[in-house]
User: Fold this.
Amino acid sequence: MGIPILSSYTAKIQDQQSVNYEHTRDNMDFCDLDDKYCESQVVLLPVEPYLVHAYWDVTSNDIEKAKQRLGDDYGQSQAVLRFYDVTNIIYDGTNAHGFFDVDIDLQAKDWYVNLWSPDKSYFVDLGFKTGDDFCLSLARSSVAKTPCAWPAPKADEYYMLVAEDAENGLSKIKFPEEPIPDDLIEAGEAEVEAEIRKVEPLKEKKRPDEDKSVRTVDLPKSIQAQFGERTDFDLTEMSEKGLALGISSEYIPSTQRKNDSADCV
Amino acid sequence: MEKGYLAIVLHAHLPFVRHPEHVDSLEENWVFEAITDTYIPLLFVLDGLVKDGIDFRLTLSITPTLASMLADPFLQSRYLSRLERLIELGKKEIKRTRYHHEFNILALLYHKHLRQVRRAFLNRYNLNLVKAFKRLQELGKLEIIAGAATHGYLPLLSVNTSAVRSQIRVGIKNYQQIFDQNPKGFWLPECGYYPGVDEFLSREGIRYTILETHGITRAESRPKYGVYAPIYCPSGVAAFGRDPESSKQVWSSIEGYPGDYDYREFYRDIAYDLDLDYIKPYIHRDGIRVDTGFKYFRITGKNNHKEVYIPKRADRKAELHAENFMFNREKQIECLASVMNRKPIIVAPYDAELFGHWWFEGPAWLNYLIRKIDSEQKTFRLITLSEYLEEYPVNQASTPSISSWGYKGFHETWLNGTNDWIYRQLHQGAQFMERLATDHPRAEGLTLRALNQAARELLLAQASDWAFMINSGADYGAQRTKTHLLRLGRLTKEIEARRIDEGRLSMIESQDNIFPQIDYRSYNN
Assistant:
């Protein structure tokens, strides 16, 4: 991400600015300001295709309730994040593709979880697990989607015409295939005509009963492309190959630091 | 007739760093340097092109935070006094280097540039650069696109829909007020996309946005043309993808033009080289050395040995690099056009501040490039993204993939072990705002003021810049996040207790004076 000005200055601020800011992570807790509104919660955020972050808050009330519910088992119970895989489905309470548990330390209040598969949708339950797999849920997150790590396979394409509609904002019309642009057709027709004109003098030599429809004129290349048989240039593959993720953020034009200055003016 | 198009998109952004409470502010200096190094030189280039009748198109994103600062009289006046001081330093430098011809030439050059900048800032642009860009838009050469209110990183704010909606809505309202028209395009902060964010854009009448390459190539249904044609999101918003090839040529630290040895070295500024006694009046009041812009060396090579900067040689290099860039685009477009059923579009987005600030010769490069595209080739034309959509209103429909233009291409820069703690607070802050908006559907008087200020504080806390800076180890980012969240927290408490401290409210209103027209009700779900 760009911000070249900032990236140049963050280093400088670090080097030189000796301002002390007293705030710490802890004294920023809004619950201190307003605890009557704080509830147990767990929030799941994707980081990249194979990593998610979860943070949570558990009220002391809810801990007490859990202790009562679990009774003697509380001491042996393990706090877990239960991940439900709900990729491409609308969860109805029973239809998750599956689940897995990640043991956590409840006091940590946040956790990073490595995943083995990208392009998934998960939600988590924060709860307690006892030996016999009972999971007492304290809070549930909303669904978080992890990013894709590669292009989708080739499949049918759909097209859309989007136009301004004075009454309803944008109007959208779907097409099953890409329409051939007018200029391409016109250019093609012009080329065909030119070709026809070129071969016209030959017509005199042909028999008059010759079927005109079999006249062989090569279609111009631009038109040929629409009728298959073209070299398979995969532009998505090409774009992916050129991709160096996050290239802008690595921009540092020179390794020189100002305090290394040797030859002053 | 041309075979394809090139769309250069410059993203101009700085976070809101207005500090009237400090006599001298390190952060305000970011704005001042960007004005002198980037925004005014860019305007010089564009004005020159218009004057010479060159037909060109350029897309420019000016974020609401930057636009607000450029239009702010307090910062304008501080900028002028900073400029005066630097012009005075220029005079001293001319005298000091009088026996060193090669340095003297540079001192004279900087002094001249600073005086030109001052003259233009005062007379031609009447202190307000936003108006100068607006005029270029009205001439049809420049398409200015809107941005999120404070450059909030939307994928990580999306836990609260009101937060995303308000970032977008407030940003667009700000655009309409400044530019007297509706924006066609929208710059997603850090190119951060998640499926669904386009719905918010569509509802505000936005036609297109720009994504990092893999946002397009990894779309739900594979795009036939890669990044060389836009795709339509389900909402109907068009998503254009960044071309990796042209990006690399400018951005890459290894292959990129800006690292050329003939170009000016960014890090060698006299502020760090000269005696403190001499330089003291021109750096931060507390003796913290900040850039003066007087930089006398060229990059020279990989190690610390630096040789004197030779402007003519660097200018020649900028011209060569412009030719090289143009040649590569011609070849690229010829190849693409031969395999596509339509004219390809190459989308090349860059941070505006790269041009002139980091890459001193960047504006000259752009100037050469645009002029050469106009007169020395016929393969492609410059285009704006909305013009491309006018020509090709039918595009493939697909859902782009979660992506950003940050390190590794996803959310890691803004969410990692250094800065993850901010999200708990930011999400809770948004909940506070939702609750306030629901509980006060028709506030008036002091409560209205407090509610609107609370909305400003939440927006200011959400800037992606703070997470970025915390990630880079700068305290300032953490301090800003906390300051605004604490102000929001306190205002929430005061509003709910119906005990608003008017004196304190006036104080923060005058400091955080962004978005005077804000309406807190955008948080009402």
The beta strands of chain A are 41-48, 51-57, 78-85, 98-103, 110-114, 121-129, 135-140, 144-145, 159-165, 169-175. Residues 168 and 245 of chain A are 38 Å apart (CA to CA). Chain A is about 25% helix and 25% strand.
